[in-house]
Amino acid sequence: MRLQAGQRFAAGEKTSVIAKDLRVSVRSVERWRRTWREGGMEGLRSTGPANSPTITDAQFAVLEEELGKGPVTHGFEDERWTLLRVQVVIRRRLRVSLSAATAWRLLKRHGWSCQAPARRALERDEHAVELWKKELWKKEVWPRVKGSRRPLGPGSSSRTRPASR
Known about the structure:
Number of strands: 0
Structural class: mainly alpha
Oligomer: single chain
Radius of gyration: 31 Å
């Protein structure tokens, strides 16, 4: 649209006509016209997203070094890297704020991938896990599912006057 507007600037068309035809605000067209006057058609070309922070190769090398140290080194409780944790490390070490999606695209572009353990830990005690699940179920889950019993005794079919019988 900016390039179309630039052609129309060169033809001498009015700002309000261009704005109406391109369905944009007059202020946008005025801003484009100012840019066109200063830099010509090249000035109107897109320079990419305005709010997309970029990380240089040197910064990514620092990030890889930090990720290599492990999550516990950075104050996390276990040895799993999540996107949110990577985000925190990027913000702390590189002083760049990225969304989780942008952090994922950055990692993917540099050859990183999602990882899940191929097998369970050797130290895992299946019997203890099953006991814990059963106890947790009995103490916490079942009482919530079961709920409380309705009180025994006469009730009412009236919505406005409960227990009117």
